[in-house]
Amino acid sequence: MKQFLTLTGAIAALMSSRAAIAEYGLNMTKGVSTISGDIYSLHMMVFWVCFVIGVVVFGAMFYSIIAHRKSKGVKAAHFHDSTTVEFIWTGIPILILIAMAIPASKVLIDIEVLDKADMTVKVTGHQWKWQYDYPEEGIGFMSNLAQSSRDAINLDDKPENYLLEVDKRLVLPVDTKVRFLITANDVIHAWWVPAFAVKQDANPGFINDAWVEVTEEGTYRGQCAELCGKDHGFMPIVVDVVSKEAFAAWVAEQQAEKAAAAASATKTWSEDELVANGEAIYNANCSGCHQKDGSGILGAFPAMTGSTIANGPASDHLDIVINGKGGMPAFKMLGDADLASVITYERRAFGNNGTVVQPSDVTSAR
Amino acid sequence: MSTISAVAAHDDHHGPEKGLLRWVKTTNHKDIGTLYLWFAFSMLLLGGAFAMGIRAELLHPGLQLMDPQFFNQLTTMHGLIMVFGAIMPAFVGLANWLIPMMVGAPDMALPRLNNWSFWVLPFAGAILLSTFFMEGGAPAFGWTFYAPLSTTFAPDSTDFFIFAIHLLGFSSIMGAINIIATVLNMKAPEMRLMDMPLFVWTWLITSFLLIGAMPVLAGAVTMMLTDRNFGTAFFDATGGGDPVMFQHIFWFFGHPEVYIMILPAFGVISHILPTFARKPLFGYASMVYATASIAFLSYIVWAHHMFLTGMPVAGELYFMYATMLIAVPTGVKVFNWVATIWKGSMTFETPMLWALSFVILFTIGGFSGLMLGIVPADIQYHDTYFVVAHFHYVLVTGALWGIIAAVFYWLPKWTGKMYNETLGKVHFWWAMISVNVVFFPQHFLGLAGMPRRIPDYSLQFADFNYISSIGGFAFGLSFVLFAYIVVDCIRNGKPADSRPWYSAKGLEWTLSSPAPYHSFNTPPTRAEILEESQHS
Q1: pLDDT exceeds cutoff 50 at B96
Q2: Predicted model pTM
Q3: Mean pLDDT, range A112-128, rounded to an integer
Q4: Per the CB < 8 Å rule, is A227 touching B453?
Q5: pLDDT confidence of A190, banded at 50, 70, 90?
Q6: Same domain for A204 and A278?
Q7: Are A50 and A86 within one domain?
Q8: How far is B521 from chain A (nearest CA, A)?
Q9: Are the beta carbons of B235 and B224 closer than 8 angstroms?
């Protein structure tokens, strides 16, 4: 009775999910890069080999289970050894494995050997966000989980790309060999976009490389694939692959924004401006640990409210945010104006009574 | 005549002590085996409860029950408790109960060491579990505890975790030494190595894996300890160390470890299939050689867990070929099992059902293992639910299935009573169906791109997670029935014959049921050994 209930429950659940199966597929993506299709084919080839072996082995088992049972009055045979048979079923698997190893090695060598890339993107994993730098173009930015996803965690009504949307996307040109230099700032992360068939560990203190040549324009989504602490599940990757012209325009726009930001770092900001800008930066970068209301998590992440650092000398506060300490990562990759804003926010919000910090203070503290 | 009565008097003199202290002070292999098995079962329920928490949080997208940090604590402790608290102690418990009886020995070779290696466990387990109540919570870095998440970025309770791992390793090494000493020194003088039953063979080989692998784990956690507390930088690049070195050391332990958990199960299955097929085990010698080959290969494939750490191509190629090679001896074992039942005269009592489903479900786990070994494809599989599905097929429907099959098979010998066959079958079908509902959809989740160890997921993964969670609750509940069947057998079971499976072979069946407190006071003769051998 019980197994019957379990079975009917499972079947009912399967039936109710039919639509989703049709919509999302059950299998690995073929992807959109020059290597992802090869990997997909390899995966299918190995799958079918396993499938056929499974049909033969399980077929023999089930035949035996049905035919060779005592209730049918079958008398047991008594054979128990055959060197010939043992040789055959040692030899055949070896041949099958060699047949699988040859294409696997070819694809692997294709993936790992890159002669010359057209451009480079440096990817740095942080707890819990990604940093993208284009060294040749001189631009860079952080990419955080989008606020729309963050806000929807406890809502029934989730946005379409729940947990797969960011505040600023990586942009790449189509039909271009892009080399990724992948590293991390704190713990090990892994940068993974399934459609590119690129997944590479980001090790702190070491640089790994990977490459991709995307053949179709579009938006592609991925996630961090290596457990990296509390918000491992909340650091997605979104890549817009655009035409070469659109990419060039985007780069020019980013460079102009960077120049404007550098200019704003030299002016003196009002406290209101700093707090308003700082709140957005805090929510994106700091609230994961120290919490949105500044309450922290006892024993793991200190509270902002009443913190001796937020209420003490600004120099200590600047030091810990810029350089990090223990589990607290360094945030030196943020701009001077942004750092001044977030530090001021921490010192003035949450009932704290610290001093205001100006971008020029950050410049001199670096 | 006088020797026989002297032996009998000797036996009376050394019966079990009265009261609870019997279990504290015991040096008897059966008492210690029983302690191990009940300890393992209680840890299985606890680790299962953690899994229920994980599946409950994953039932729907969003965070309903716990914050992500606690979710990570649950996944970490689920893995650690299941590996070190449930599966490994359960197999040591089986070894304690069965090996002396199977080799014609009175007891284990080192009985006081045996007592000690058990009694370390509850304390290690208690230390590990106490971290839940510490400031900052339990370890939350996964059972593989990769540095630097487990060093610089870990809660203070990590030092207690390190101490617990040291104790658990200590217990395992002592257990392994005892098994090697028992098998090689205590087996009946007339028993040759190639007469030994396969459970004894697989455990002998497993013991060497334990002795080789556990000290490496101890080394890894000791380096963590000094990195955390004494200013070393083994795994910290800023001090000249390398976080990837941690993974090399961990998996040099970790890969033999997975065979530590499966080889004794291979042994169990090789006893059960011949009994219920009424036919000798096919290819006894090749089974022994295959087990030894798997054990050897397990030491030289560790980096297939690390294909994405930035390994050079030559390294990736080598570890891919070596990994694929494991399929050969494993395949030989599966083919031998199929040949064992082929043209047999099968009946399907509960242990046989578990054994047959082991062969099928473990093989499915083997297929996904082969797929994971193909480096380019592993780029897409690595750290996804495909991996979670793979290792639950080999560890739950592999290792755990072997343990449950063994419990049903030898329970009449241990308790002297027969379990309820109808309930046994109901439990089997319940567990067998629900376990597939839990883990089979996880293959699809992984291929569709769901990373492992995440407390919340995007909407395209919602349906399969829902199915998997429902299956998980049903599977978890099946262990309540399992507990009932075992307790019911002990209390109300009908008396069992000394050979309750009349087609079973093995020296343990020549003893009365329940087995006497001391197994063999006089070693079995050559004729008896050959009569009870698996391959005659």
Answers
A1: yes
A2: 0.90
A3: 89
A4: yes
A5: very high
A6: no
A7: yes
A8: 32
A9: yes
Mean pLDDT of A15-36: 68
Q: Are residues A134 and A172 in the same domain?
A: yes
Same domain, A128 and A249: yes
Whether residue A269 sits in one domain with residue A255: no
B267 touches chain A (CB under 8 A): no
Nearest CA in chain B to A190: B308
Whether B78 is a known active-site residue: answer yes
A327 and A354, same domain (yes or no): yes
Gap between the Cα atoms of B72 and A97, Å rounded: 37
Strand partners, B470: none
- CATH number of the CATH domain containing A336: 1.10.760.10
Is B530 part of the contact surface with chain A (CB cutoff 8 Å)?
A: no
Which residues of chain A are within 8 Å of residue B285 when distances are taken between CB atoms?
81
Distance (Å) from the C-alpha of residue A196 to the closest C-alpha of chain B? Answer: 10
Reported ipTM = 0.90
CB-CB neighbors (< 8 A) of B348 in chain A: 69
B403-452 tens-digit pLDDT = 999 999 999 999 999 999 999 999 999 999 999 999 999 999 999 999 99
A19, pLDDT greater than 90: no
User: pLDDT band at A17, cuts 50/70/90?
Assistant: very low
pLDDT at A49: 95
Q: How far apart are CA A100 and CA A97, in angstroms?
A: 5
Nearest-angstrom CA–CA distance, B238 and B192: 56
Tell if the CB–CB gap between B141 and A113 is shorter than 8 Å. no
* A257 and A125 share one domain: yes
Task: Tell me how far apart the alpha carbons of residues B504 and B441 are, in angstroms, rounded to a whole number.
Answer: 38
Q: Which residues of A touch B243 (CB under 8 A)?
A: 188, 203-206
- Residue A134 lies inside a defined structural domain of this protein: yes
Note the pLDDT of residue A25: 63
Dihedral, B208, B210, B211, B214 alpha carbons, nearest 10: 160
Q: Is residue B153 within 8 Å of B69, Cβ to Cβ?
A: no
Structural domain count, chain A: 3
Q: What CATH number does residue A38 fall under?
A: 1.10.287.90
User: What H or E segment, with its residue span, contains residue B175?
Assistant: helix B158-181
SS3 call for B98? helix
Take residue A229 and report the two structure tokens written for it.
């602490």
Q: Tell me the residue range of the domain where A246 lies.
A: 119-262
Between B136, B316, B360, which is nearest A108 by CB? B316
Q: Which of A212, A244, A262 is the last residue of a domain?
A: A262
Told to judge if B304 belongs to the known catalytic residues of this protein, a careful annotator would answer yes
* Token couple for B260: 């530590």
Neighbours of A70 (CB within 10 A): 17
Binary contact (A205, B310; C-beta < 8 A): no
Residues of A in contact with B142 (CB under 8 A): 227
Question: Which residue type does A82 have?
Answer: S
- Provide the pLDDT confidence category of residue A271 given band limits of 50, 70 and 90: confident
In this structure, are residues B381 and B446 in contact, taking their beta carbons and an 8 Å threshold? Answer: yes
Average pLDDT over residues B268-279: 96
How high is the pLDDT of residue A115?
A: 73
Q: Given this model, what pLDDT does residue B489 score?
A: 96
- pLDDT surpasses 50 at A4: no
Average pLDDT of the residues of chain B: 93
**CA distance, residue B346 to nearest chain A CA (Å):** 4
Asked about B427 being catalytic, the answer comes back as no
Contact A199 B379 (CB under 8 A): yes
Q: Which candidate from B68, B377, B382 shows the least CB-CB separation from A225?
A: B382
Which of B30, B305, B392, B417 is labelled catalytic? B305
Cis-peptide into A173, omega within 30 deg = no
Position A285 in a domain: yes
pLDDT attached to residue A23: 46
Q: Among the options B172, B293, B397, B478, which is catalytic?
A: B172
**What does the alpha-carbon distance between residue A94 and residue A100 come to, in Å, rounded to a whole number?**
10
Reference B451, options A42, A201, A334; nearest CA is A201
